[in-house]
Amino acid sequence: MFRIKICGVTSPLDAETACGAGADAVGINFFPGSVRYVPADRAAPILEAIRGKAVPVGVFVNERPETIGAVCRSLGIEVVQLSGKETAEDAARISFRLLKAVHWGGAGGLASFRGYPCEAFLLDAAVPGAYGGTGEPLDWELLGKECGGPRIRFGGEESGKRWLLAGGLTPENVERAIRLARPYGVDVAGGVEEAPGRKDPGKVRRFVENARRGFGSEGAQP
Fold it and tell me: Residue 138 needs a FRET pair 20 to 30 A away by CA distance; which of 1, 102, 104, 181 works?
C-alpha cells in the first residue's frame, strides 16, 4: 500500500502535478455527488498522466460491484477506494485491491470493521451526510492511541492491516499529524487545492515534502 495519496484530481495537469511532486498514489473520484467528480468516460486522459508514475485509485460511493469492476478494467485502475456504506459482502465481490474508508467517530468506532475484506483502511472524519472530502480533522492523538501504529488494531488486537489518515490535512499540519497518529500513509484532497477540484502546485509539493519528513521521524515507520 502507498504512503502519500493526492485525491480528487480532476485534470491531467493536476495529475502531472501530483506525480511530479512525488505522490505515491493519485485518486480520481467517480461519485457524482462530489465536487471533484470525474465521469468515467472523461477519466482516460487523467489515467494516462498517472500511469507508470503513481498508483491510480478509483474512489466510489455505494456503487454496484459490477459497475466498479467495469470502470476499473476499462481504465486500468489498480486500487478501489470504497467511501460509502459498502458491506463486507459487497467488498468481497470486487476483484481489485481495496482501500476502505471509515468515517471515524471516536474511540471504539473501528470494531464493526474487524474482518472487512480490504488491504487497508482510510480513516476520515465522521460528518453527517458526507462521504469524505470535508476537510474536518480528526483527533490525531486519540486516533493514534486507538490504532496503535501503522497497522490498525481492533480492540487492542493488531489486524496486520495498514491504515491511512485523512481529514483536514494540509501542508502545514501533516508532519505533526503523522507524528501523533502514526498512520502508514496519508490522504489529502481539499488541503492542497486553490479552489474545489483544482490543485495548487505549491501546496501539493509542500504536502509531499512535509509528509515524507513526518514518516522519517522516530516512531512513524511500521
Answer: 1
7 catalytic? Reply is yes
From 19, 24, 72, 124, the catalytic residue? 124
Q: What total number of domains does the chain contain? A: 1
Q: What is the mean pLDDT of each successive set of 10 residues along the chain, which is 222 residues long?
A: 96 98 98 96 98 98 98 97 96 97 73 90 73 70 89 80 95 97 96 96 98 76 43
Q: Is residue 163 part of a domain?
A: yes
> Which domain, by its residues, includes 111?
4-215
Instruction: Check residue 220 and give its pLDDT.
Output: 43
Q: Is 124 a catalytic residue?
A: yes
pLDDT, position 222: 43
- The reply to whether 220 falls in a domain is no
Q: How far is the C-alpha of 137 from the C-alpha of 157, rounded, in Å?
A: 25
Of these residues, 7, 19, 118, 147, which one is catalytic? 7
